């Protein structure tokens, strides 16, 4: 199975900050990488697919990059609604796997 | 507008069975794959299973293989997940998700499965 490792596991930031979350795959997954946001008590919300493509309706403040094994999610100009948990997910091969999540908290 | 609605979650005893349903609207089921993803209390996301309406193939995570069965009915725009031989560790919110080239572009609100005596 492909293991997905995110760093950091938690992150404190202030409104207006720019943050970056990293995701590493245990083997190459080409560009089959998605990012998902989840707020407490809510269903997951898809943000990005194929490394850098925004899902419909997602703000351009979110951006992704990477290829192969190393990927990043960057969020510009943090707003209160951006504080949530973020997951990366590989869909290069079954079983699909998620990172353990990065909890973004308000400083 | 795409909409996914899960149902069937319940409290069930260890060793019991349950069938979850996910009814969808706003897109053509027959051209898609649909998946189930679960989240145990306080834990992260875990992919459970995917069904391809294109070729009828199904895929399972190791933790549920041999115990869960996914199926779909394109005429009803519904995907099912039959849960059997349930264990305490299957307790989770089960989400239905629409696949788009492998990633999940729409999610339902989830249905809660609790396995406890």
Short description:
The complex is a heterodimer of chains A (107) and B (117). By secondary structure, chain A is mainly β. In chain A, 0% of the residues lie in helices and 50% in strands.
Task: Name some characteristics of this structure.
heterodimer; A: 107 residues; mainly beta; 4-stranded antiparallel sheet; 0% helix; globular; B: 117 residues; 7-stranded mixed sheet
Describe the 3D structure:
The N and C termini of chain A lie far apart (about 35 Å). Chain A is mainly beta and about 110 residues long. Chain A is globular. Chain A has strands at about 5, 10-15, 20-25, 35-40, 45-50, 55, 60-65, 70-75, 85-90, 95-100, 100-105. Chain A has no helices and 11 strands. Chain A is about 0% helix and about 50% strand. Chain B has about 120 residues and is mainly β. Chain B contains no helices and 11 strands. In chain B, the strands form 2 sheets. In chain B, strands 2, 4, 5, 6, 9, 10 and 11 form a 7-stranded mixed sheet that branches. In chain B, strands 1-3-8-7 form a 4-stranded antiparallel sheet, with no helix packed on it. The interface of A and B includes residues 38, 43, 55, 87 and 92 of A.
The secondary-structure class of chain A comes to: mainly beta
- The helix-strand sequence of chain B is EEEEEEEEEEE
How would you sum up the global shape of chain A? globular
Radius of gyration of chain B (Å): 13 Å
Mean pLDDT of chain A: 97
* Gap from first CA to last CA of chain B: 40 Å
Helix % of chain A is: under 10%
Class inferred from helices and paired strands of chain B: mainly beta
Biggest sheet of chain B, in brief? 7 strands, mixed
DSSP strand tally of chain B: 11
Low-pLDDT windows of residues of chain B = none
